[in-house]
Write a structure and sequence with these properties.
Oligomer: single chain
Number of domains: 1
CATH architecture: 4-Layer Sandwich
Number of helices: 10
Order of helices and strands: EHHEEHEEEHHHHEEEHHEEEEH
GO molecular function: transferase activity
CATH superfamily: Aminohydrolase, N-terminal nucleophile (Ntn) domain
Protein name: Class II glutamine amidotransferase
Radius of gyration: 18 Å
Pfam family, one: GATase_4
Keywords: Glutamine amidotransferase, Transferase
Distance between the termini: 33 Å
Strand content: 25-35%
Shape: globular
Strand order of the largest sheet: 3-2-4-1-10-9-11
Helix content: 25-40%
Largest sheet: 7 strands, antiparallel
Structural class: alpha+beta
Length: 284
């Protein structure tokens, strides 16, 4: 599987989150504590928003822990919203187009998990992608197909609804092909203004996901902690694993739910697949 983090708040240097915490994403690339694999070395990527409405991305196929360009970039890029992802392949090739995050217009998307039996149902799922989006699929991962299915099903106008319809579609196609538990996912999506993070699996045993605690309260508890000290009042993070040894800094995202981050505030809402997507799967 993979590990990832998403940040939203006042602009900070990317290295402050990607490299500097005690259990940073770079440390997790070698010593993951909650992932399926301890090592996540099958590529990495960062995506960030700057002065333009569309985000920039940098992805590479090597391990994050030894990439000098990643260290150089994160020490010079300041951003108010960014994604970072380290990859452990579930079977697809280690190539740049398979590294997260994925981008379309102003949207970024990243995923930890898998579509079970993807090789069996890949063609049927790909054919459900809108023709005007299909040519933009560059890689071979289930994660990217999930993204373009969500875009097809209305991500730009209704992100939670689109992801629910996407999951419903994948589950319907999977079960029709004898796959008992088709979906395992923690997914992050953002448009430069708002951030959504979903935790769901068909089996209801989803991969780990946490959101950061209110910063003001943490400052009172840990006045000398560097990670807490640098965070602004509106800073919010969602991570696959806690970034440090401050237990009160992190809250687990509940099973079958999603987090909406906007204007420096969290909202946690229930998530379930939408059966409306079944109609899409049945189209000729």
């Amino acid at each position: 599987m993979c590990r990832w983090l998403a940040y939203s708040g006042s602009p900070i240097m990317l290295e402050d989150i990607v490299y500097k915490p005690a259990h940073s994403l770079i440390d997790q690339s070698l010593h993951s504590k909650l992932g399926v694999e301890t090592t996540n070395g099958d590529g990495f990527g960062i995506g960030w928003y700057g002065h333009r409405p569309t985000p920039a991305i940098f992805r590479d196929v090597g391990p994050a822990w030894s990439n000098r360009n990643l260290r150089e970039l994160t020490s010079h890029i300041r951003s108010r919203m960014f994604f970072a992802h380290i990859r452990a392949s579930t079977g697809s090739a280690t190539q740049q187009t398979n590294c997260h995050p994925f981008r379309s217009g102003r949207w970024l998307w990243m995923h930890n998990g898998m579509i079970a039996g993807f090789s069996t149902i890949r063609r049927e799922l790909a054919l459900a992608v809108s023709p005007d989006l299909y040519s933009s699929i560059e890689g071979t991962t289930d994660s990217e197909v999930m993204f373009f299915l969500a875009l097809t099903l209305g991500l730009q106008d209704d992100p939670p609804g689109a992801v629910a319809r996407m999951v419903g579609l994948v589950e319907e196609v999977g079960r029709r092909n004898g796959i008992e538990y088709p979906v395992q996912m923690t997914v992050a999506a953002c448009n430069g203004e708002r951030l959504w993070a979903f935790r769901y699996s068909t089996e209801h045993r989803s991969r780990s996901l946490f959101h950061s605690t209110d910063i003001e309260g943490l400052r009172a508890l840990y006045p000398g902690n560097p990670l807490v000290g640098k965070a602004s009042d509106e800073a919010r993070m969602i991570v696959s694993e806690p970034l440090g040894d401050v237990p009160e800094a992190w809250n687990e995202v509940p099973e079958s739910s999603y987090v909406l981050v906007q204007h420096g505030r969290y909202e946690i809402l229930p998530f379930e697949p939408s059966p409306a997507a079944v109609a899409v799967a049945a189209q000729p």
